[in-house]
Specification:
Blueprint: H1 3-13, H2 19-27, E1 29-35, H3 56-76, E2 79-86, E3 104-106, E4 125-131, E5 151-156, E6 159-160, H4 163-173, E7 178-184, H5 185-194, E8 199-208, E9 211-214, H6 217-233, E10 247-253, H7 256-262, E11 268-272, E12 275-280, H8 283-295
Parallel strand pairs: 1-2, 1-4, 2-3, 4-7, 7-8
Antiparallel strand pairs: 5-6, 5-10, 8-9, 10-12, 11-12
Helix pairs in contact: 3-6
């Protein structure tokens, strides 16, 4: 046994660190991070969330800082390979030159696995940064599911979904658990209720759809680091969120016409004026269908 491992074993025996941490550091962890913007510290309106907003450039920096805080903590806990998904808006939000040289980044759209593109069975854990609650949740800053402009609900096997649970189910298809989520108090509560056990890093407390009581950025980064450390120190405790197929997907639209036209497809049924139903064999099929539903337009051009 080398001196480093002897020291680590001594620390474990003294009760100063969990044995799981030593195992993680010895074996090396492969981590997937999916990053959104609505759940970032201080983000409350469209002013922070898109290129036309006067604070957008500042919040691109904050998003990058939150992701880097998660990366730093993951590395402390033994992560040796990290893939990042830029999962908000145009998918081109993270400041690529400020990310570590040895990670990889997925950008822009469309993607068959949407906010989880690139996930596979080789990953050990998933981390969600900057997430928000669902469109059916009466609480939460900027609460919506995939499209605030077009959708009123997404259900899988009759369960009301938030983006975190859809993405957890996609990861679950590959046997990978979600171990940590950051955002406001509403998304942390909802993710726990729907998905189950995961570390929750609360960086703000929702007061309304466009208001919150918020931490300051540096304090939020430390909260994220602490919860990533806590999650990866007990990575073996978490179970993948698995939805057994066939999986029944229901999507409710704000308007009549999308539901009417989507029901022309032979594998789609119209449940009511605003809602369609699709049956997929697994979450990969379901994800592709959602991606098609929310991305396709007859006037698409390269």
């Amino acid at each position: 046994m080398n001196r480093t491992k002897m020291l680590a074993l001594s620390i474990v025996l003294m009760g100063l660190i969990s044995p799981d941490v030593i195992v993680a550091q010895d074996n090396g962890l492969k981590i997937y991070i999916s990053a959104d913007m609505e759940g970032l510290v201080g983000a409350v309106t469209s002013d922070q969330l898109g290129p036309s907003g006067f604070e957008y450039q500042r919040f691109r920096q904050i998003m990058t800082n939150e992701v880097n805080a998660a990366i730093e903590a993951a590395r402390e806990m033994g992560a040796t390979e990290i893939l990042i998904s830029d999962s908000h808006g145009n998918g081109e939000n993270l400041l690529i030159e400020q990310l570590p040289d040895d990670i990889q980044l997925i950008r822009s759209w469309p993607r068959p696995l949407m906010m989880m593109e690139g996930i596979d069975e080789t990953f050990d854990a998933v981390i969600f940064i900057g997430y928000h609650s669902s469109t059916t949740n009466t609480k939460g800053v900027r609460a919506h599911t995939i499209s605030s402009a077009n959708l009123t609900a997404i259900r899988l096997n009759g369960i009301e979904m938030l983006e975190a649970s859809i993405n957890a189910a996609i990861a679950g298809d590959f046997g990978v658990p979600v171990v940590m989520i950051s955002g406001d108090d509403a998304v942390v509560e909802e993710a726990h209720r729907v998905v189950g056990d995961m570390e929750g890093a609360i960086v703000k407390w929702a007061l309304g759809f466009h208001s919150a009581r918020t931490l300051m950025p540096e304090a939020a980064y430390e909260v994220i680091r602490n919860h990533v450390r806590a999650a990866l120190s007990r990575v073996e405790d978490f179970e993948p969120y698995i939805l057994e197929g066939p999986i029944e997907l229901e999507i409710s639209f704000k308007n009549y016409l999308p539901a009417e036209v989507m029901a022309y497809l032979p594998n789609v049924n119209r449940v009511d004026a605003h809602t369609i139903r699709f049956i997929g064999n697994d979450m990969t099929e379901v994800s592709k269908f959602i991606a098609f539903t929310t991305r396709y337009a007859v006037d698409i051009t390269p």
